Amino acid sequence: MVTARGPVGSGMAWRAALPAVAGIGVALAPVPPGLAPDAWRYFALFVAVVAGLVLEPVPAAGVGFIGMALAAASRLAAPDPETSLKLALSGFANGTVWLVFAAFMFALGYERTGLGKRIALTLVRRLGGHTLGLGYATMFADLALAPFTPSNTARSAGTIFPVIRNIPPLYDSQPGPTARRIGAYVIWTGFSATAVTSSMFVTSLAPNLLALGLVEKTIGYRFSMGEWVIGFLPIGLLLVAALPWLIYKVYPPEVTGSAEVPRWAAAELDTMGPMTRNEMVMAALALVAIGLWIFGGRVMEAATAALLVISLMLLLRIVTWQEIVANKDAWNVLVLLATLFGLADGLNKVGFVAWLAKGSAAMLTGYPPTVVMAGLLAMFFLVHYMFASITAHVTAMLPVVLAAGAAVPGVHARPLALLLCYSLGLMGIITPYATGPAPVFYGSGYVSRKEFWALGLTFGAIFLAVLTVIGIPYLTFLYP
Question: What is the distance between the alpha carbons of residues 202 and 211, in angstroms, rounded to a whole number?
Fold first, then answer.
């Protein structure tokens, strides 16, 4: 986990002061019409927390913990102390939080058994002649799993990440000064890939299914899986084909390729010899997890399946409890994500999100339909900075924005509905907490805090621009 680079008392006081100043400044500003004072003050607290996450006067998990404590103590989201505390702690009961934690445990199992190194060496042997080839291998691996894995956390953080995190050390690339050799490129490509594949199919992101249900309730139209794929096809094909190359240009690795590295990887594989008992057990457990994530949705939730597999890893001595307890990155991410889930849920409960959506939609009335659609899409996309859960975002925002847009004369409800739905996976790129896999990739340490936020903004803008420029005319043509 990336941490602050110095104590507050040694020239870092401004990192602690700025979030407080931002929060107090918002709280003291006049309360906007139509919004309760407590809702505005809760938003001020959230602004301070987000500023703290950007500046990190203390490690990010500590920022989230402080925000959670202040939210509970302030009772802005719930009037009585007990309910306020339960709301602040509610993130720890969220399945996605524990699924992210499980991804770190799977990575630990891959590392201890050597399976991750073996798979990474195999990839490097076949594709390591050029770094861009590794980027495309990562993209296509995620794409191959996407139609069958509704949890992008399970797919990306639990399956792809434990493998690709073993590739950078093969090139002497570690978090810190050598991260840009190749590790930062591989990690950011893995994270970006899942944002695109999460929008490719209805079944590649659990909130997609929820979104379609809310669309049917709001405008009375049911989209089939085929319509979803056809509607996203030109956008998805462009992003899948271009994304690894685009990252290669925008965020280039220092190591672009080497003919010797694949030969070295082949020699290392020979040195490792045949798969060990523990490697085979870990591979079997990984397949069990993937199978449960793909086919076991009606039997158990994805996080439950992951926790069950971790239990088997303990019983079969793939990992020890001491190693789990000692994995501070996993616990840091668990606390960070859980606290942010609770804080973001409070924004919805105090009514701030609904107020913002209605006000933004009202401001667009009277503009041309295309402008209204683009404006609503941008607002829907960018407001995700206030959410640590795509599911919460969908539930709170989609019906309000869709209903407001559909009420504007000339706006076609079906294209707007699909645009909003397609943005769900893509918006996961923007922050280190925007979607389940984000804290795992951020926590690897290969992409610094500053770079992660800057790249999130850059690629979020690219994704939004592609969705707007291609999606609006294409979908309007499909659904005139």
Answer: 10
pTM of the model: 0.76
240 and 318: one domain? Answer: yes
Give the list of residues 6+ apart from residue 50 with CB closer than 8 angstroms, or none.
385, 386
Measured from the Cβ of residue 272, the count of other Cβ atoms closer than 10 Å reads: 14
Collapse the DSSP code of 85 into the 3-class scheme (helix H, G, I; strand E, B; otherwise coil) and give the result.
Answer: helix
The verdict on residue 355 lying in a domain is no
Last residue of a domain, one of 92, 116, 132: 92
Task: List the one residue out of 53, 102, 103 whose CA is nearest residue 336.
Answer: 53
Q: At what angle do helices 95-113 and 277-295 cross, to 10 degrees?
A: 160
* Rounded Cα gap, residues 455 and 473, in angstroms: 27
CA distance 394 to 399: 8
> Is the domain of 185 the same as that of 69?
no
Q: Which residues of 336-348 are buried (b: 16+ CB within 10 A; e: fewer)?
A: bbbbbbbbbbbbb
372 assigned to some structural domain: no
Cα 314 to the center of its chain, rounded Å = 28
Query: Where are the alpha helices (H) located in 220-301, listed in sequence order?
Result: 225-250, 260-272, 277-295
| Residue appearing with tokens 């989209």 | 223
Place of tokens 């802005």: 76
* Cβ–Cβ < 8 Å for 475, 418: yes
Contact of 291 with 66, CB cutoff 8 Å: no
**Domain range enclosing 234:** 95-329
pLDDT tens, per residue, the chain with 480 residues: 444 444 444 446 788 889 999 999 999 999 999 899 999 999 999 889 888 887 888 888 898 899 999 999 999 988 899 999 999 998 898 887 888 788 788 888 888 898 878 887 887 788 777 889 889 988 988 898 888 777 888 888 888 898 888 888 888 899 999 999 999 999 999 999 999 999 998 888 888 888 888 888 888 888 888 899 999 999 999 999 999 999 999 999 998 876 777 887 888 889 989 999 999 999 999 889 888 877 777 788 888 988 999 999 999 999 999 999 998 888 987 888 788 878 877 887 888 877 877 777 777 777 888 999 999 999 999 999 988 778 878 877 888 888 888 878 888 899 999 999 999 999 999 999 889 899 999 999 999 989 999 999 999 999 999 999 999 999 999 988
Encoding tokens for residue 123?
């990839």
Number of folded domains that form the chain: 2
CA 416 to chain centre: 23
